[in-house]
Amino acid sequence: MNIQTDTTHDPKATSWVESANAAESEFPIQNLPFGAFRRRGSDEAARIGVAIGDQILDLQRALQQGGWSSAIQGLLQPLAQGDLNAHMARSAEERLALRHALFEALLSGSEQEAALRGALVAQADAEMLLPCRITDYTDFYTGIHHATTVGKLFRPDNPLLPNYKWVPIGYHGRSSSIVVSGTGIRRPWGQRKAPDAAEPTFAPSQRLDYELELGAFVAGGNALGEPIAMEKAEQHLFGLTLLNDWSARDIQPWEYQPLGPFLAKNFGTTISPWIVTMEALAPFRTAFERPAEDPQPLPYLDSAQNRTQGAFNIELEVWIETAAMRAAGLPAERLSQSNFRDAYWTWAQMLTHHASGGCNMNPGDLLGSGTQSGPRPEQGGSLLELSLGGKQAIRLANGETRTFLQDGDRLMLRGRAVAEGARSIGFGECSAEMLPAR
């Protein structure tokens, strides 16, 4: 699959939806991400829309307004019925054709402007839902700076296990507990065992943490028993979202051996409501490079395209708003920032490895990137790193301190794809408030 920029990435292009042209907008016409919504306060069925500025183009109403070719009407039909998974299952060529049609329809001077104005819904008037049916969920561990820092907490002399630089590490998560941004996350109960305790106890987690991640949605899948080759992996990827893999750090170490994460991870995963398509992200691709002294990927995880275009320049941030901040009218405070280009494995490698044994992937499967931390200590993508395992409290501007999350804390992940000569695009906010244990 040849990944190239085209007219839909022209940084000079503007939309007749004026808010999309603001420099600070996450959703200019160059983006056009997909999401699911209903009008706030209504009982209408979920429908698929495209974010444009501070508006949503309701694709059900857009189809009804007309002005589309018969081919594009066919592509819009499942989206008008609220089925994004059906669109994910289409070929890469069909998905690109619809992107071009939506771009032309929303472009300044478009002949469809008058008809489509009635299909706009203000984002402020919309209730966002999970963007698609999430058919399965696997979380990877591609943040080498996170893996190294966390490894040092437990194995100071050998932070990375021998397999880390050879194989994309992952575990199978729960799709049932994935929720959309804005949904509260309940503090979980679980077994905990102190190092000096004779036996474990069952109690609410006291070391609740977040993880700054990206998620990738699978497009067309593969049949059971048939791997996906690196050369074809990109056409099996639909788009990216922000992802927060909430973690109970005091439950995790007692239960994860020998089979890996379980209850410490399955009580909630938050994603942003918009899926930014791989087509929209073409200008932000960059070379994937390993340090010369590191082992290079095995042949099945290597391709010329992956080496030249496999990584992405996506800036990531974590913000916190405590209950005390809200009560005092204080703004949220940034905890850390990092960049996805530092990931040790690419999306194509993650997907290829996942399917390499014949695992059948399906449209709507979600892959988590693992925590994305930067190389500097202040760039940790979790409180586990920033607080050095709870040993070093983080002092906030209002005088509060945190080692791990408290009830009432609201966490916000933000992401923005940037590149010289390109119009930057965003992902929308991925946020949730910590709720007390039941």
Q: Could you characterize the architecture of this molecule?
A:
The protein is of the alpha+beta class and 438 residues long. The protein folds into 2 domains: 7-129, Fumarylacetoacetase, N-terminal domain (SH3 type barrels, Roll); 137-435, Fumarylacetoacetase-like, C-terminal domain (Fumarylacetoacetate hydrolase, domain 2, Alpha-Beta Complex), CATH 3.90.850.10. Helices cover 20% and strands 25% of the residues. It is built from 12 helices and 27 strands. It has helices spanning 59-65, 70-80, 84-88, 92-106, 113-116, 144-154, 230-233, 252-255, 304-309, 323-328, 347-355, 383-386, and strands spanning 34-39, 47-52, 55-58, 120-122, 126-129, 137-140, 170-172, 178-180, 185-186, 189-192, 201-204, 208-209, 212-218, 237-245, 247-248, 269-271, 276-277, 285-286, 311-312, 314-321, 333-339, 366-368, 394-395, 401-402, 410-417, 425-426, 430-435. Strands 6, 7, 8, 13, 14, 16, 17 and 22 form an 8-stranded mixed β-sheet that branches. Strands 9, 20, 21, 25, 26 and 27 form a 6-stranded mixed β-sheet that branches. α1 packs antiparallel against α2. The longest helix has 15 residues, at 92-106. It is globular. The mean pLDDT is 97.
Tell me the number of structural domains.
2
Helix percentage: 10-25%
Assign an overall shape. Answer: globular
Q: Assign the CATH class of the largest domain.
A: Alpha Beta
Largest sheet: number of strands, sense, barrel closure: 8 strands, mixed
Task: Return Rg in Å.
Answer: 22 Å
The CATH architecture classification of the largest domain is Alpha-Beta Complex
Q: Unreliable stretches, pLDDT < 50, 5 or more residues? A: none
CATH topology descriptor of the largest domain: Fumarylacetoacetate hydrolase, domain 2
Number of helices: 12
Mean of residue pLDDT values: 97
Beginning-to-end CA distance, first to last residue: 49 Å
Strand-pairing-aware structural class? alpha+beta
| The CATH fourth-level homologous superfamily of the largest domain | Fumarylacetoacetase-like, C-terminal domain
Counted beta strands: 27
Q: Kindly estimate the percentage of residues that lie in beta strands according to DSSP.
A: 25-35%
